[in-house]
Amino acid sequence: MPAQPARGDLVPSAVLGLLGTRGPLSRAELARQLGVSPATVTQITKALLARDLVVELDQVPSHGGRPARRLGLASTGWGAIGAKVTADHVALVHVALDGSVTGSSVHAFDPDAPHALDALAVLLRDAVESHDGHLLGVGVGIPGAVDSQDSGTVEAPTLGWSEARVGRALRSALGVPVLVENDVNTLAVAERVYGVGRDHGSYLVATIGRGIGCGVVIDGALYRGAYGGAGEIGHLPMSVDGPACACGGQGCLEAYIGQAALERAARERGITDDGIDALRLAADQGSADARALFAEAGAMLGQALAGVVHTLDPEVVVLLGEGITAWQYWEVGFAASFRRHLMPSRRGTPYRIDSWDEDKWALGAAALVLASPFDQTGATGDQGSLVRERLHAGPSA
Amino acid sequence: MPAQPARGDLVPSAVLGLLGTRGPLSRAELARQLGVSPATVTQITKALLARDLVVELDQVPSHGGRPARRLGLASTGWGAIGAKVTADHVALVHVALDGSVTGSSVHAFDPDAPHALDALAVLLRDAVESHDGHLLGVGVGIPGAVDSQDSGTVEAPTLGWSEARVGRALRSALGVPVLVENDVNTLAVAERVYGVGRDHGSYLVATIGRGIGCGVVIDGALYRGAYGGAGEIGHLPMSVDGPACACGGQGCLEAYIGQAALERAARERGITDDGIDALRLAADQGSADARALFAEAGAMLGQALAGVVHTLDPEVVVLLGEGITAWQYWEVGFAASFRRHLMPSRRGTPYRIDSWDEDKWALGAAALVLASPFDQTGATGDQGSLVRERLHAGPSA
DNA sequence: GACGCTTTATTTAGTCGCAAACTATCTGCA
DNA sequence: TGCAGATAGTTTGCGACTAAATAAAGCGTC
Question: Which B residues 224-253 touch A at CB under 8 Å?
């Protein structure tokens, strides 16, 4: 833990990143947001202005003092590519620095195939080559544990990957910085840059969908755990025995309210045999059974998240994931359960639902790259430094 | 989040603290332990040597290179006072920088009394005045939530305290730095300096006793949560309904395996009416019922801690608390349950039992002060800076 | 016992970012 | 009109720490 971490030009990158993700800001605003002194911002921006990376825009009307002169990025051509890997496809998005999606695609993918990593590399190389503008890097979201964003060695049972050297393989194939991270954590990072992280330093991002996951952000930094496995709330033990879970345990949260569990329950209760979408449709059409099933799941989620809140005491909990589209039915059970299982002093802990669309996973992966200018903890490693270097070098390519 | 936090002379304090808590070290060792460059250590130690705060000791035989010259503290007269406040007494210890106890005492205390804070201040003032050597500060451990170590405003239902301004009151009464912290967190900090924290950056300290608690240390820093309430695992919801808990909820972990719950179960099962010590005695004497009761508690603790491990992915879990004296009986249920509820990839997470004696709570509180030279996060606030200042000023008083 | 290797400690030159003092420019109020 | 107060931005000098080069002092080995 270096007192002053060896980080090449972190603040300039952070300035560029902030201007890119938040739009034009005054110097004073930059200083406040980044927690550095105004003096430093003056120095940094002076250099960036001289190098034409930043331009002085308009002057905003005063609020009882000298008017602020806003700064903006000289070039808005910066962007990143995000990829989300699942058991049957890869979703790709091209994202600009401000978070806007400039293109997206979905590709069939078989992670069990002999040269799956090579196939992934090919997919991504095409995307890199077709990228319009100056590419800062590629972010990859994986449903599994990643030892570090930097090395990107992956343990992902659902993909059949063990000790897969995803980061290394892609890096050498693509020639641009590649950051690999657990998929839920990418969403947490995205919230840091574009969502709740603007107003809160410590929060949880819980996802409901195929699995149940949780990203932990503490004081603005993603907490990954000792071995990159923090936030595995899908396997919180909810009962001593209970249904068998894919992880080998019994009574895991996911074995109760994961997508597969809900689909099985829907079958057993005679609601539908056609999967989760049909179940939601049934609820939409007024099926009391379907609604009850979601409400029960919501209640259990509430109980589990109450426990996590007791453990971590976050400022706010964000709920996300593909399952969130049925949230109105989950909430019926969740709201009461969550409050009831919280101790009185925590009962005020707010939760928020973010909007969802299919791109969001991949978008989160791209956010990994776009957030790396803000990384003060070194979590992004060498690849993060490379991203900052490219940002620093300017859109010359 | 300042990139370079405003901290007055942090490294010199850390050097002194490290020499005090770990004994003589070479410069190279100091550099490695503190994560600073050898150059810095040379500069710092040069200054400290010049001011006679540090002395050069012997030269240790080489291991294939230039022999290391070890440095030690010139004065070992530094110490701190630790206080643990409970519902019926206050335990005090005087502790030297190296963690050795130089004196201890226990005083009756009624936190519900009208001027309880004043009474506490009187107790502590006597201790401060009678302290032998140079006092760095006073640490106070409280069974409740503390907003920050610095301000020390306390929310402690078990003491009947709400918004009690403990820190402020004691500070003005004592005239030395006062750090206030949740009691479990003080143990976590003590482990950081004297225990498992020497070898591990991220760990949990779980306590069993009157309550069930947990301290969270992440990358060497105590994680306190957004409102100082992290680690309240005593109120993890273990079931949808279940026994009523003092917190107002139902089915909390503590309502199953806290001291009061165990004592009630012992009564109901006809094992003993005489409290927890009698229960352990019964187990010692071979009572199968008593042993089963502990084993059941252990099993539930294992399940709960497995969940916490899934959430936080620590390197190691340390078990502590006054209840740990009966650990041999807990363990029967704990070991299997903990492993069984962990997912395969976490099943290797080790747990350790620390020895226990009654001073340990107060000792933890003292460690709060003795660890403040290592605080890089600013968690100790102004009071921490004051401690560092006193350390820096030398044992002149 | 000369050479290479390892580890420890120091020196030097330089970077990063801060605090403090300052200037600049506006609002509001008497 | 003029001054207090607020907010924005700049300049200057400095403290803390680093990286890189160097010196110091031992070990092993042929």
Answer: 224-233, 235-237, 239-240, 247-252
Residues whose CB is less than 8 angstroms from the CB of residue B153 and which lie 6 or more positions away in sequence, other chains included: B146, B147, B163, B164, B165, B166, B167, B168
The verdict on B52 and B97 lying in the same domain is: no
Q: Report the phi/psi class of residue A286: left, alpha or beta, with left for phi > 0 and alpha for psi in -120 to 50.
A: left
Give the domain-ending residue among B19, B40, B73: B73
For residue B241, how many other CB atoms are within 10 A of its CB? Answer: 8
**Is A1 part of the contact surface with chain B (CB cutoff 8 Å)?**
yes
Q: Is the CB of B377 under 7 A from strand C?
A: no
Is there a single domain that holds both residue B219 and residue B297?
yes
Spanning CA of B190 to C1' of C11, the rounded length in angstroms is 38
C-alpha torsion B368→B370→B373→B376, nearest 10: -30
Least reliable range by pLDDT among A287-301, B160-174, B216-230, B376-390:
B376-390
Query: Contact, B281 vs B264, CB < 8 A?
Result: no
Number of domains into which chain B is organized = 3
C-alpha distances out from residue A387 to A29, A120, B240, Å: 24, 21, 48
Q: Kindly state the tokens that stand for A232.
A: 């595995």
- Among partner residues A3, A228, A376, which is closest to B376 by beta-carbon distance? A3
d(CA A283, C1' C8) / Å: 72
Q: pLDDT at position B266, please?
A: 97
A299 touches chain B (CB under 8 A): yes
Q: Which of B14, B152, B107, B102 is nearest to B366 (CA)?
A: B102
Residues A346 and A228 occupy one common structural domain: yes
Nearest CA in chain A to B225: A313
Using the Cβ of B307 and the Cβ atoms of chain A, whether some distance falls under 8 Å is answered with: yes
Which residues touch B204 (CB under 8 Å, ≥6 apart)? B214, B215, B216, B217, B305, B308, B309, B312, B314, B316, B317, B318
**A279 occurs within a structural domain:** yes
Rounded Cα gap, residues B391 and B135, in angstroms = 9
In this predicted structure, what is the pLDDT of residue A392?
Answer: 85
Do B183 and B204 belong to one domain? no
DSSP A204: E
Q: Note whether B266 and B349 are same-domain residues.
A: yes
Task: Identify which of B227, B310, B341 has the shortest CB distance to residue A313.
Answer: B227
B173 in contact with A at a CB cutoff of 8 Å? no
**Which residues span the domain enclosing B222?**
199-353
Q: In this predicted structure, what is the pLDDT of residue A378?
A: 82
Structure tokens at B27: 């410069």
Residue A296: pLDDT band (50, 70, 90) is: very high
Residue A7 has pLDDT above 50, yes or no: no
* Separation of A172 CA and D19 C1' (Å): 29
